[in-house]
C-alpha cells in the first residue's frame, strides 16, 4: 500500500511539472488540413513569381504571390506547400470504413492570412503577399483557401516554383568533436551517397586546403513515433552529412567549404565559411560562451506567427549575429525548433541559425519538445515532441555523446569544462545518467579548467516560475534530490537550465541555504552553486510566482541570453543580456585562486588522515 501511494505521488508530480506545456501551440497544428474540401473556382486565381530561384546561388529568396477570390472572406488564407504537387493517392484514408482519401495530407510549411497586406481584401477579393522561401530540396506551390484554418476549402492553386539546384548543400553547422582539437561540420543536402560523395575542403587560412570525407544519415517516416510527425507533419528531411576535422592547431582560423563530388567528376559547392579552432584545455586566454534555451524559430516574412508562439526568436538570433565576433561557442540547451512533429521546420531552424552555427560551435541539449513521447523511453510520458521522439534532433545536429539516443555528454573549451545532462531521461541517483554526471564532474582538472558548468533543459535546480512555486519545491519534481550533493562535492560554479521561459539567477545555494548575501561579486572558496534559468530566448514567456523567494537574486520576464567571459584562470564575468537591445541587465564576477577550489567546504571535503 505504501508503494502504491509513492507511485501515485510520483506520477502526480511528473504531471504537475508538465502542466505549463500547453501555453502555446505550434502554428501549423491549427490547420485541419485533412479536412480540406476542393472548390476550385474558375474566377479564382493565384500566381507566384519569380518562377526560378537561386540564379546567383542564393539559398533564400522573396516571392510575390498575387491572388483573386470572387467570394472573399476575412478568414481566407494562403499556404505554401512543398513538394508543389498534391498527390491524394499517397494519402492514408481519413475514414477507414468509407476508404475516403483526403485531397491534401501534408501540412503547409508556412501560411499567411489573405488580408494581411490589404485591409480591403474582404471587399475587393484581390491582394498580394510576400513570402520568403529557403531552399528545401523540392519545388513549391501556393494555395488559396477559404473556410479558415479549421475547415479549409481549396479555391485556387498556383504555378510551381523552384530553386535552380534544389539539392544544393546548405545550412552548415559546427560542433565540438569528442576531443578538444576536433571540429565537426554538419550540413543538409538532397544528394544521397549513390549520387555524390560528400566532403569538406578545409585548412588554415592561407595554407593548402585538404579534403575530409563526410558520413551521410537520414530518417524515414516510419522512424517517427506518432502524429503529426508520422502523418500531416511529415516531410522528407533530405540527407544529413557530417565530417570530422581533426588535429586542429589551437586558436587558428580555418577556412572550409562543403561540397559533393558527383560521379561525372564535377563538384557541387556550398558556401565558404571560417571558424576559429578551440583553445588547448587550460589555456589562459580570453574565452566567451553564450548560453540559452527555448529559442525556437520564427519567420522573417511574418508568416505563422499569429499566436506569438515564438515572438523573441529572431531578436535573439539577430543579437547573436551582431555580436558574433565576440562569441567563441554557443550552447542551446533544449527546445530547439518547437517543430512539434512538423519536420519542415527543422530546415527553417537550421537556416535561421546558420550565420551563427557555421562560424562557432553550436552545442545543443535535448528538451521535451525534441524527445518526449508516450511509450518511447523518455522519462516524461507526454506528447511534447509531436511524435519526433528525438530522431530529428539526433540526426540534424552533432553532439559528442557516446550514444546519440542518450543525450548526455561532456565537452571542453579552454578554461571551461561543461557537463550537459539530458533531463528527458532519468537522472536520479542510481540511474545510468547519474553515473555519467558524477564521472563528468569528477574528471575535470580544476587547476587547468577552473570553471565547471552543469546544464540541463528542465530546471533541476531552482526556479520561482509560477507552476514550480505552486508545487512548493521551486524545481522540477525530484530535480535536485540527488544531484545537489554532486554539485556541492565537485564544486560546480554555475548550473544552467531552460524549459521555463524567463530569466532568473539564484544566490550560491546548497540544500536551500544561501552561502552569503553578496550579489555582484564572489571571491574566495567555491562554496555552493549558482543556479540560472535562461529559457527566455524566444518562445512565449513564463510567469513568475508573486512571492519572490529569498534565494532569488534577479528575475526578468523578458527575452534574453547569458554570456560568460573567462579572462583567465582566476577571473570570470557573467552577463545577462536582453535580446531586444543586447544590453546587460544583470551581471556578477567571480575571482579566486586554485587554492580556493581545493578548500574544504560542507559536504565537499576530500578525506584526510592524522597519519604523518
Automatic annotation (TrEMBL):
It is an enzyme of class 3 (hydrolase). Keywords: Glycoprotein, Hydrolase, Iron, Secreted, Signal, Zinc. Residues 529-587 form the Purple acid phosphatase C-terminal domain. InterPro entries: Calcineurin-like_PHP, Fn3_PAP, Metallo-depent_PP-like, MPP_PAP, PAPs_C, PAPs_N, Purple_acid_Pase-like_N. Gene3D superfamilies: 3.60.21.10, Purple acid phosphatase-like, N-terminal (2.60.40.380). Residues 173-276 form the Purple acid phosphatase N-terminal domain. CDD domains: MPP_PAPs. Its EC number is 3.1.3.2. Its cofactor is Zn(2+); Fe cation. SUPFAM superfamilies: Metallo-dependent phosphatases (SSF56300), Purple acid phosphatase, N-terminal domain (SSF49363). Residues 46-165 form the Purple acid phosphatase Fn3-like domain. It catalyses: a phosphate monoester + H2O = an alcohol + phosphate. One of its GO terms (molecular function) is acid phosphatase activity. GO terms for cellular component: extracellular region. It comes from the Eukaryota. Pfam families: fn3_PAP, Metallophos, Metallophos_C, Pur_ac_phosph_N. Residues 1-19 form the signal peptide. It is found in: Secreted. Residues 288-503 form the Calcineurin-like phosphoesterase domain. Belongs to the metallophosphoesterase superfamily. Purple acid phosphatase family. Homodimer. PANTHER family: INACTIVE PURPLE ACID PHOSPHATASE 24-RELATED, PURPLE ACID PHOSPHATASE-RELATED. This is Purple acid phosphatase. The lineage of its organism: Eukaryota, Viridiplantae, Streptophyta, Embryophyta, Tracheophyta.
Amino acid at each position: 500500500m505504501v508503494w502504491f501511494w509513492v507511485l501515485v505521488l510520483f506520477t502526480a508530480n511528473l504531471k504537475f511539472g508538465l502542466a505549463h506545456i500547453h501555453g502555446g501551440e505550434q502554428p501549423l497544428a491549427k490547420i485541419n488540413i485533412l479536412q480540406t474540401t476542393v472548390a476550385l473556382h474558375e474566377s479564382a486565381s493565384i500566381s507566384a513569381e519569380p518562377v526560378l530561384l537561386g540564379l546567383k546561388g542564393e539559398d533564400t529568396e522573396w516571392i510575390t504571390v498575387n491572388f483573386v477570390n470572387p467570394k472573399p472572406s476575412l478568414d481566407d488564407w494562403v499556404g505554401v506547400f512543398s513538394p508543389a504537387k498534391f498527390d491524394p493517392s499517397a494519402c492514408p484514408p481519413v475514414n477507414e470504413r468509407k476508404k475516403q482519401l483526403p485531397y491534401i495530407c501534408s501540412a503547409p510549411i508556412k501560411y499567411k492570412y489573405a488580408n494581411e497586406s490589404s485591409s480591403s481584401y474582404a471587399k475587393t477579393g484581390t491582394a498580394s503577399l510576400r513570402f520568403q522561401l529557403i531552399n528545401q530540396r523540392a519545388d513549391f506551390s501556393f494555395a488559396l483557401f477559404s473556410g479558415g484554418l479549421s475547415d479549409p476549402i481549396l479555391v485556387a492553386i498556383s504555378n510551381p516554383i523552384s530553386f535552380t539546384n534544389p539539392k544544393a548543400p546548405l545550412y552548415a553547422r559546427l560542433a565540438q568533436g569528442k576531443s578538444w582539437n576536433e571540429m565537426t561540420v554538419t550540413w543538409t543536402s538532397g544528394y544521397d551517397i549513390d549520387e555524390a560523395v560528400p566532403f569538406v575542403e578545409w585548412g588554415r587560412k592561407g595554407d593548402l586546403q585538404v579534403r575530409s570525407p563526410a558520413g551521410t544519415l537520414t530518417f524515414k517516416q516510419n522512424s517517427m513515433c506518432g502524429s503529426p510527425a508520422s502523418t500531416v507533419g511529415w516531410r522528407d528531411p533530405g540527407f544529413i552529412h557530417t565530417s570530422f576535422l581533426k588535429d586542429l592547431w589551437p586558436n587558428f582560423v580555418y577556412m572550409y567549404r562543403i561540397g559533393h563530388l558527383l560521379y561525372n567528376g564535377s563538384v557541387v559547392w556550398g558556401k565558404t565559411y571560417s571558424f576559429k579552432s578551440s583553445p588547448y584545455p587550460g589555456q589562459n586566454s580570453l574565452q566567451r560562451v553564450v548560453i540559452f534555451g527555448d529559442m525556437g524559430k520564427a519567420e522573417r516574412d511574418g508568416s505563422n506567427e499569429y499566436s506569438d508562439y515564438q515572438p523573441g526568436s529572431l531578436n535573439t538570433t539577430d543579437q547573436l549575429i551582431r555580436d558574433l565576433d565576440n562569441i567563441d561557442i554557443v550552447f542551446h540547451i533544449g527546445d530547439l525548433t518547437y517543430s512539434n512533429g512538423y519536420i519542415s521546420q527543422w530546415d527553417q531552424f537550421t537556416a535561421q541559425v546558420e550565420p551563427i552555427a557555421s562560424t562557432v560551435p553550436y552545442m545543443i541539449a535535448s528538451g521535451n519538445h525534441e524527445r518526449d513521447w508516450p511509450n518511447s523511453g523518455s522519462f516524461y510520458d507526454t506528447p511534447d515532441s509531436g511524435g519526433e521522439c528525438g530522431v530529428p534532433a539526433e540526426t540534424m545536429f552533432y553532439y559528442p555523446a557516446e550514444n546519440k539516443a542518450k543525450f548526455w555528454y561532456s565537452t571542453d573549451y579552454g578554461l571551461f569544462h561543461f557537463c550537459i545532462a539530458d533531463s528527458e531521461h532519468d537522472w536520479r541517483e542510481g540511474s545510468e545518467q547519474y553515473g555519467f554526471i558524477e564521472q563528468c564532474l569528477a574528471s575535470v582538472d580544476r587547476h587547468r579548467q577552473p570553471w565547471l558548468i552543469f546544464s540541463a533543459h528542465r530546471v533541476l535546480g531552482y526556479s520561482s516560475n509560477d507552476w514550480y512555486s505552486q508545487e512548493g519545491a521551486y524545481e522540477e519534481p525530484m530535480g535536485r534530490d540527488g544531484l545537489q550533493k554532486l554539485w556541492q562535492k565537485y564544486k560546480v560554479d554555475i548550473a544552467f537550465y531552460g524549459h521555463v521561459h524567463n530569466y532568473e539567477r539564484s544566490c550560491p545555494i546548497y540544500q536551500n541555504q544561501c552561502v552569503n548575501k553578496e550579489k555582484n561579486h564572489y571571491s574566495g572558496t567555491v562554496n555552493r552553486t549558482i543556479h540560472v534559468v535562461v529559457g527566455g530566448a524566444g518562445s512565449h514567456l513564463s510567469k513568475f510566482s508573486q512571492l519572490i523567494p529569498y534565494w532569488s537574486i534577479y528575475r526578468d520576464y523578458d527575452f534574453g541570453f547569458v554570456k560568460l567571459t573567462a579572462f583567465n584562470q582566476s577571473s570570470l564575468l557573467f552577463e545577462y543580456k536582453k535580446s531586444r537591445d543586447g544590453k546587460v541587465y544583470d551581471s556578477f564576477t567571480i575571482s579566486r585562486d586554485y587554492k580556493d577550489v581545493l578548500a574544504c567546504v560542507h559536504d565537499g571535503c576530500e578525506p584526510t588522515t592524522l597519519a604523518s
